[in-house]
Structures are given as structure tokens and as C-alpha cells.
Design a protein that fits this description.
The protein is of the alpha/beta class. It has helices at about 5-15, 110-120, 160-165, 190-195; strands spanning about 15-20, 40-45, 55, 65, 90-100, 105-110, 130, 155, 170-175, 200, 215-220, 230-240. The chain has one domain: 3-Layer(bba) Sandwich (Glucose Oxidase, domain 1), CATH 3.50.30.50. The strands form 3 sheets. It has a 7-stranded mixed β-barrel. Strands 2-3 form a two-stranded antiparallel ribbon. Strands 6-8 form a two-stranded parallel ribbon. α3 (about 160-165) packs parallel to α4. The two termini are about 25 Å apart. This is Cyclase family protein. Keywords: Hydrolase.
Length: about 240
């Protein structure tokens, strides 16, 4: 076993994994125009089959998911699908910027980010930024008739998105339905980030359990020419 592999194994043994993914199940919150998540029984022991399995149907943007650049970018170098996203862009050092509780429908401005950097350290090229608004606490089944999660959420201003682009950030995630605020006109954060090949991860969970910096992974399905994919997002942190 190489020294590098031994070092990795030692690190893993002294770490814990924080799951940042919402469970995929029927009646989860969703964008109004997106397909609902559904699960249909195809085989079961009770029906005399030798195995159990379900057919599932869902949007590429169901639950905790990643936007590929082509989700908003119609042409040019950034017009590519989720199957062409380099995996090294969505694994690495993550900065968890905790802005919770953030006011409804407000926009994150550059000064919010810079204030966090003054307290915790500068963002570096290749970092993955995870923004916590505290919105995951509102994630509820639609059967509960509480649609707070899909109304009046906060998000990034154009200037904040441009700041991340200029910093060379690889991906930006949030615990809201979208990185743009619910009231934003023209989706400036989506166009700014995706147009510069900064990936977007939405509907994250448990960002509040992370330290300022951690090791982050978000793995999409390689859907050919897909506009996005559900992901299993998680972070590895020291087990103190």
C-alpha cells in the first residue's frame, strides 16, 4: 500500500461523514414546472417474484440536485450536459458560509461574503461554496400543506455570483430551491455562474452541521446531455 493511500485511509478512520442530501420520496418540494418524484412497485416477494424493485420517475432537478451549465446556457463553451461535468470540479475543499437566519427574499451581497472571509479565511480558486440560509428547516412533504420552502426564499445577487466567478470557485450550493432568490428577475445568479462553468447545487441539507471548511463531494448521474441530476452530497469532517 502506497504512503499516499495509507494517509487517505488514516484520514478516513479519523473522520465522520455528514450527509447533505434530502431523501427522495413522494411529495417532496419541487419547482412548479418540474416533474414530481414517483415510485411504482414493479416486482415484490408478496406478488410471487424472486426480487423486489421499483420503477421511479422524477425530474433531473428532483431533491438535492446539480445544475449542468446547459440548464440555462443555450450555446457557447459552457453549453454542455451533466454527463460532461468533470468530477474533480465537484469534490474538494468546501467553504460553508453560514448566513442563517437570513431574511426572507433578501439578497446575499459581496459584503456578506467578505465579512465571512475576514472571520474564517479567504476563499481560494477551486473551492466549493455552500451557503446556509437555514432554509432546510422548512423542507416538508407537500402532504402537510405547508409550502413555506417554495415561497419567498433568499438568494445570491448578481454581484455575489460574479464575486464567486472572479474567485475561481468551482461550484456554489445552497439549502434553498434555487440559488437565485424567489423574487429575482431574470435568474442573474444562474446565468452568471453557469455561464462561467461554475456548477450549482440546490436543495442541500444539514450545512449547519459543517465547520467553516470541510472536504465535500456531490456525485451526479451521467445522464447523457442532461440539464442536471440528483446528487448524493456529503462532506467529510474531522471526528473531534
Amino acid at each position: 500500500m502506497s504512503e499516499l493511500l495509507q494517509a487517505w485511509m488514516s484520514l478516513i478512520s479519523r473522520s465522520k461523514v455528514i450527509d447533505l442530501t434530502h431523501k427522495l420520496e413522494e411529495n417532496i418540494p419541487l419547482w412548479p414546472t418540474h416533474a414530481r418524484f414517483g415510485k411504482i412497485l414493479q416486482e415484490s416477494y408478496e406478488l410471487g417474484d424472486v426480487a423486489l424493485h421499483y420503477q421511479i420517475s422524477m425530474s433531473e432537478h428532483s431533491g438535492t440536485h446539480m445544475d449542468a451549465p446547459k440548464h440555462f446556457i443555450q450555446d457557447g463553451p459552457a453549453h454542455y450536459g451533466i454527463d460532461r461535468v468533470p468530477l474533480e470540479r465537484i469534490m474538494g475543499r468546501a467553504a460553508a458560509i453560514d448566513l442563517s437566519p437570513f431574511p426572507t427574499e433578501r439578497l446575499v451581497i459581496v459584503e456578506h461574503i467578505q465579512q465571512w472571509e475576514e472571520e474564517h479565511g479567504r476563499l481560494q480558486k477551486g473551492d466549493i461554496v455552500l451557503i446556509r440560509y437555514g432554509w432546510d428547516r422548512l423542507w416538508k412533504s407537500r402532504a402537510e400543506k405547508d409550502d413555506s420552502y417554495v415561497r419567498e426564499w433568499p438568494g445570491l445577487s448578481f454581484e455575489a455570483a460574479k464575486y464567486f466567478v472572479d474567485k475561481g470557485i468551482s461550484a456554489v450550493g445552497s439549502d434553498t430551491l434555487a440559488v437565485d432568490a424567489s423574487h429575482s428577475d431574470g435568474n442573474p445568479a444562474h446565468y452568471t455562474l453557469l455561464g462561467n462553468e461554475v456548477l450549482i447545487i440546490e436543495n442541500l441539507n444539514n450545512i449547519g452541521l459543517l465547520p467553516a471548511f470541510s472536504l465535500f463531494f456531490a456525485l451526479p448521474l451521467p445522464i447523457k446531455d442532461g440539464s442536471g441530476s440528483p446528487v448524493r452530497a456529503f462532506a467529510v469532517v474531522p471526528n473531534l
